[in-house]
Amino acid sequence: MSYNDQWWLATIGRTLIWARLRVLDAGTAEVLDSDGVSQPYDSEDTARAALMDAEFVALDGLDEDDANSRGFALDELAPPSGGDDDMLRAQMVRQLPSRR
User: Fold this and answer.
1) Model pTM score
2) What is the DSSP letter of 92?
3) How far apart are CA 81 and CA 44, in angstroms?
């Protein structure tokens, strides 16, 4: 099975909340949420709409101005990484250090 992963984030102050949108071969999608739970969707569009409704933005769509308006710099962003969903779970909510 192959898939396409896209990282999305929401912010509350200096807290980043990550979500991974995974598009599967069959055209369905799943979102790994900040609790580490994978939510199934019938399509990528439905999953994207759910993320946008929850005020998430696609990481690949952010530019420096967008990041600054949210209170951080693009170079502060690094999506969770790991070999499996269990490794990602602990990284899905991250507190950025205070800006000086």
Assistant:
1) 0.89
2) S
3) 22
Give the C-alpha separation, 19 to 58, whole Å.
9
Q: Which residue has the tokens 């900040």?
A: 34
Long-range contacts of 54-57 (CB under 8 A, 24+ apart): 54/10, 55/10, 56/8, 56/9, 56/10, 56/17, 56/19, 57/8, 57/9, 57/10
Pair of tokens at residue 65: 């101005």
Q: On the CB side of 47, how many CA atoms lie within 13 Å of its CA?
A: 25
Digit-coded pLDDT (tens) for 26-47: 889 999 999 989 999 999 999 9
Q: From CA 45, how far away is CA 52, in angstroms rounded?
A: 10
